[in-house]
Design a protein that fits this description.
- There is one protein chain.
- The chain is of the alpha+beta class.
- A 7-stranded antiparallel sheet has the order 1-2-3-4-5-6-7.
- Strand 4 and strand 5 form a beta hairpin.
- Helix 1 runs antiparallel to helix 2, helix 1 packs parallel to helix 5 and helix 1 packs across helix 6.
- 38% of the residues are buried.
């Protein structure tokens, strides 16, 4: 049975609200950006029209998008609170793979309390019971997905061919075609926008990175054939707007992240166009992955 998006978001918002209330009752202050993201989602759950762009902005603020690693929240509990609200806003957007949002919201909500190291805060079982109860209550209150303005949607969703055989070869492209590829133009940066974002976050706009953005930027690919949910994202603009690249794992200053896998791998291009990769769970540092961007993409889709 398909998951009811509106009911799912309502149930998760209820859990985050309880966690934030508990957090405040323990004398801790929830970050304003996290509170604002939760309040915006609650407005939509309550029936007020909310633009996807507003949810995106709330998510970005809660996740501290655009902040350098050194500037990001260091208090673990506050960081998890930000994560819970930001992940909730992401789920509310109903982006590709939103069904995976439940676990990310629930985990961050749990860690917001458990990281305080205080006895008798709500545990996983209690939070899950709250979610199930809230879900049952919300299932009769399904609402429409937040809508983008029609003109903007028409302009930004013009289809781009996902036939990349000229760059990665026919065999790899056939594998790619089976994995629900799309180009999300909102995640593709113009040369000016990408250059500004790179500079803001301390990276250099290498020719190889700019070319990769024009060729592959905004590509979103399911992790397995004919399924959506766990997605790969490609392009420096999309990567830098997320927060997964914050953990360097031996990456050098000249390396720019250009691809993220759903199983926590980061792929970089250096200033000579060579591709490097790191499994942020299993590896302690990145290793050479391919001679260039095209070879990297071919190897990824043939894996």
């Amino acid at each position: 049975m398909p998951t009811d998006h509106a009911a799912e978001v309502a149930s998760l918002a209820a859990v985050v609200r309880v966690v934030f209330d508990d957090f405040a009752a323990l004398g801790r202050v929830v970050p304003d950006d996290a509170l604002a993201a939760l309040a915006l989602v609650e407005q939509w759950v309550g029936g007020k029209p909310v633009e996807v762009s507003d949810l995106q902005a709330a998510e970005d603020r809660s996740h501290q998008e655009g902040f350098s690693y050194a500037q990001r929240e260091k208090d673990r509990a506050l960081a998890w609170a930000r994560g819970a609200a930001g992940n909730l806003a992401w789920t509310a957007k109903k982006a590709r793979g939103w069904q995976q949002g439940r676990q990310s919201v629930m985990d961050a909500a749990l860690y917001t309390l458990s990281s305080l190291g205080i006895a008798k805060t709500k545990d996983h079982t209690q939070l899950e019971a709250l979610r199930v109860q809230a879900l049952a209550k919300a299932q009769a209150q399904t609402r429409a997905l937040p809508k983008k303005k029609a003109a903007a949607a028409t302009k930004k969703t013009k289809a781009i061919s996902t036939d990349l055989s000229a760059f990665i070869g026919k065999a790899a492209n056939k594998r790619l075609a089976a994995r629900c590829p799309i180009f999300d133009l909102e995640q593709r940066g113009s040369a000016a926008a990408l250059s500004a974002l790179l500079q803001k976050q301390g990276f250099v706009a290498h020719d190889a990175v700019m070319e990769f953005e024009k060729r592959f930027g905004g590509l979103v690919v399911a992790d397995s054939d004919s399924e959506e949910g766990d997605d790969w994202i490609f392009g420096a603009y999309a990567c830098l707007k997320s927060n997964a690249h914050a953990d360097p794992h031996g990456a050098k200053p000249s390396w720019v992240p250009v691809a993220y896998s759903p199983n926590d791998c980061i792929y970089y291009l250096d200033d000579k166009g060579v591709a490097w990769a790191v499994d942020t769970i299993a590896d302690t540092k990145a290793g050479r992955f391919a001679k260039d961007a095209n070879a990297m993409m071919k190897r990824i889709f043939m894996m």
